[in-house]
Specification:
Low-confidence stretches: 1-20, 242-248
Family: Belongs to the TRAFAC class YlqF/YawG GTPase family. RsgA subfamily.
Oligomer: single chain
Enzyme class: hydrolase
Distance between the termini: 42 Å
Bound molecules: guanosine-5'-diphosphate, magnesium ion, zinc ion
CATH architecture of the largest domain: 3-Layer(aba) Sandwich
Structural class: alpha/beta
Shape: globular
Cofactor: Zn(2+)
Helix content: 25-40%
Number of helices: 10
Subcellular location: Cytoplasm
Number of domains: 3
Number of strands: 13
CATH topology of the largest domain: Rossmann fold
EC number: 3.6.1.-
Length: 337
């Protein structure tokens, strides 16, 4: 690859300097089990493995590495991170991605989207203090547009920003809407299959399929699995800049922002969130929490509960309270991990 060719001399120089053992900083751009793809600051990519059995790092982490072989390295540590997004169920807790600025929730008019998944994605973002952005795709399919808009009204009223677009029907408008939202941020895409996540990635990141194949080949020696999380740098066009080379070697790529694509969002377990985190992850609950008679109120059936009173008045939606109840139940399950 030309990339490797370009960075060859640089690599040799840095390896010689530190006798191959100097710690270098790099970015994790893909993860599949204990196998990582590591991107150096010159854009070249290596296979990376953690030193121990258990791996504590995720896509989006900045790590320190030591060269092991020409295209391999050992991850020796990671830099302090802003945040870390998890997913968990009764059986395991999984690291999803680190250093996230925005959770982009991709929904569509057809097939109908899961409101449960939307609610969970919002809660996961709120629990980390990350900004959520809701996208309703396929507005060209007008038959179910009004129904979808109606279901989203609750979330708009809660203050969540919602974009209505059509990746296929009006790609230019879609780009115009998304550019200012994505530029200079690290965003993770969340969505059920069929909502248009891949279509969106294709529109935003030219050549994304080739990149995916390259990473996939690296991770799985040729098997084209899509069961890994990966990070794509946004192209220069996203922030309106005209100059700049496409690809990882562009020194401005890091500042332009990135998109992290993660498979398997049919379910989004949040067993790892504590009760205290949960009640605060519902923004409409927050002002009511001080109204509860009992300081340790669970907002389920306690007398004098501010949340339940607000629900009775119609100020808090029953759908949202149901989700809270379900998440609280999950949070109380035993966790073997
Ligand atoms: N009508 C319409 N179809 C779309 C749009 N975006 C994606 N699709 C279609 O929806 C299906 C699922 O899209 P895909 O990108 O594979 O979804 P993913 O499973 O979320 O990655 C495909 O058949 C796409 O062609 C859109 O804006 N309008
Ligand atoms: Mg897809
Ligand atoms: Zn209460």
């Amino acid at each position: 690859m030309s990339r490797a060719g370009r960075s060859g001399p640089q690599r040799a120089a840095s390896a010689a300097k530190g006798n191959g053992a100097a710690a270098e900083e790099a970015l994790i751009v893909a993860a599949h089990g204990r196998h990582y793809v590591i991107e150096l600051d010159d854009g070249s990519r290596l296979h990376g493995f953690p030193r121990g059995k258990r791996s504590e790092c995720a896509v989006g982490d900045r790590v320190t590495i030591e060269r092991a072989a020409a295209d391999q390295c050992v991850i020796t540590g990671f830099k302090p991170r802003k945040n870390l997004l998890h997913r968990s169920d009764q059986f395991k807790s999984k690291l999803l991605a680190a250093n996230i600025d925005q959770v982009v929730i991709v929904l569509a008019t057809e097939p109908g989207f899961s409101e449960d998944l939307l609610g969970r994605a919002l809660v996961s973002a709120e629990a980390l203090g990350i900004r959520p952005l809701i996208i309703l795709n396929k507005i060209d399919l007008t038959e179910r547009l009004e129904e979808a808009r109606g279901r989203l009204e609750l979330y708009r009223a809660l203050g969540y920003e919602t974009l209505f677009l059509s990746v296929h029907g009006s790609p230019d408008d879609t780009l115009a809407q998304l550019r200012p939202q994505l530029a200079h941020r690290s965003s993770i895409l969340i969505g059920q299959s069929g909502m248009g996540k891949s279509s969106l990635l294709n529109l935003l990141i030219p050549g994304v399929e080739a990149q995916t194949r390259e990473i996939s080949a690296k991770l799985d020696s040729g098997k084209h699995t899509t069961t890994f999380t990966r990070l794509y740098h946004l192209p220069a066009s996203v922030d309106g800049a005209t100059a700049g080379v496409e690809g990882g070697a562009d020194p401005h790529a890091r500042q332009r922002g990135c998109l992290i694509d993660s498979p398997g969002f049919q379910e989004f377990g949040l067993h790892h969130l504590s009760e205290g985190m949960l009640e605060r992850a519902f923004p409409e609950f927050r002002p009511r929490l001080t109204e509860c008679r009992f300081y340790n109120c669970h907002h389920i059936n306690e007398p004098g509960c501010g949340v339940l009173a607000a629900m009775k008045d119609g100020a808090i939606s029953e759908r949202r309270h149901q989700l809270y109840t379900q998440l609280l139940h999950e949070s109380r399950q035993q966790k073997p991990w």
